[in-house]
């Protein structure tokens, strides 16, 4: 009887042991399959070409089947390799998502929000005290970035008005927060210049904004020259310095308009789409994100905000 239980215990232990391929070799295989090159995979993994080649050889020997064929100077997956890669890619995607979630949970409860530096500094951060009074259990972690660099990888929400660089699927998922109103602004002294003597100040990565504004208003201003900056706050500072006419969303310069340091001779016009919140594609909208979106809608609708 004692021998029987020892035998059963051995069976249980064997059944619990996973039969996995060499994991370092699988990582090398995934990089080669994705990049189509041992050289590029080695660069990505910060390993030598020979080390990555040895990993691939080990995996193929372990599996007992070739995973790649030569394809010119590169490699092409065999049918067996393609089937295996589909599973490996899905597993890596799940592992990456789970590990990212683990990191967020380790930082404690909160919400990761990505938005432009100008919107964060000039509107969002000054309003956060109001949000924290309503939701003391939620903490916002901000990633401030330029329009060119904005992506919601790692963030729970991306806030932006220009989603032209995103896919149709992303734009359909985006949640509308509030209208955006843009105006051509400059100092009062600069406004007295003729249009033919005015310089246009544009954002380097949302330069189509001027085209939209002119199409809506039918007005052509600042035709004497062109300046471009990578951040909206630099465009605002350039306008304040009397360098030209900048196209800016009204909320971002509410203080300057109130103080009279900037004027909008042609007023402000509503752009299509409005400010939107794009949730991360890899996860559903959390309760914290839902609460933040609801607060944003109310706060952005408040003329005093």
UniProtKB/TrEMBL annotation:
Q: Which Pfam families does the record match to this protein?
A: HTH_1, LysR_substrate
What stretch or stretches form a coiled coil here? none
- Domain HTH lysR-type stretches: 21-78
Stored SUPFAM superfamilies: Periplasmic binding protein-like II, Winged helix' DNA-binding domain
Gene Ontology MF annotations: DNA binding
Q: Which UniProt keywords apply?
A: DNA-binding, Transcription, Transcription regulation
Recorded family membership? Belongs to the LysR transcriptional regulatory family.
The identity of this protein, by name, is: DNA-binding transcriptional LysR family regulator
């Amino acid at each position: 009887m004692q021998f029987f239980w020892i035998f059963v215990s051995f069976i249980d232990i064997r059944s619990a042991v996973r039969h996995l391929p060499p994991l370092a070799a699988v990582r090398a295989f995934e990089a080669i399959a994705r990049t189509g090159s041992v050289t590029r995979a080695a660069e990505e993994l910060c390993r030598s070409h020979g080390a990555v080649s040895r990993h691939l050889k080990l995996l193929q020997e372990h599996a007992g089947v070739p995973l790649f064929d030569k394809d010119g100077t590169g490699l092409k997956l065999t049918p067996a390799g393609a089937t295996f890669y589909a599973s490996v890619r899905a597993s890596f995607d799940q592992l990456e998502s789970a590990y990212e979630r683990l990191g967020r949970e380790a930082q404690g409860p909160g919400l990761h929000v990505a938005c432009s530096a100008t919107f964060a500094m000039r509107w969002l951060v000054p309003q956060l005290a109001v949000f924290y009074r309503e939701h003391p259990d939620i903490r916002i972690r901000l990633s401030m970035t330029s329009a060119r660099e904005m992506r919601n990888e790692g963030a729970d929400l991306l806030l932006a008005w220009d989603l032209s660089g995103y896919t149709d699927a992303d734009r359909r998922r985006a949640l509308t927060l509030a209208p955006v109103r843009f105006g051509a602004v400059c100092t009062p002294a600069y406004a007295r210049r003729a249009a033919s003597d005015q310089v246009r100040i544009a954002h380097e990565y949302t330069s189509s904004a001027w085209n939209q504004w002119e199409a809506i208003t039918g007005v052509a201003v600042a035709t004497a020259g062109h300046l471009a900056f990578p951040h909206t706050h630099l465009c605002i500072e350039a306008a304040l310095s009397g360098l030209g006419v900048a196209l800016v969303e009204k909320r971002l310069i509410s203080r300057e308009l109130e103080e009279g340091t900037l004027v909008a001779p042609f007023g402000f016009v509503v752009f299509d789409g409005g400010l939107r919140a794009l949730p991360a594609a890899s996860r559903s909208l959390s309760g914290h994100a839902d609460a933040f979106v609801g607060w944003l809608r109310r706060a952005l609708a408040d003329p005093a905000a």
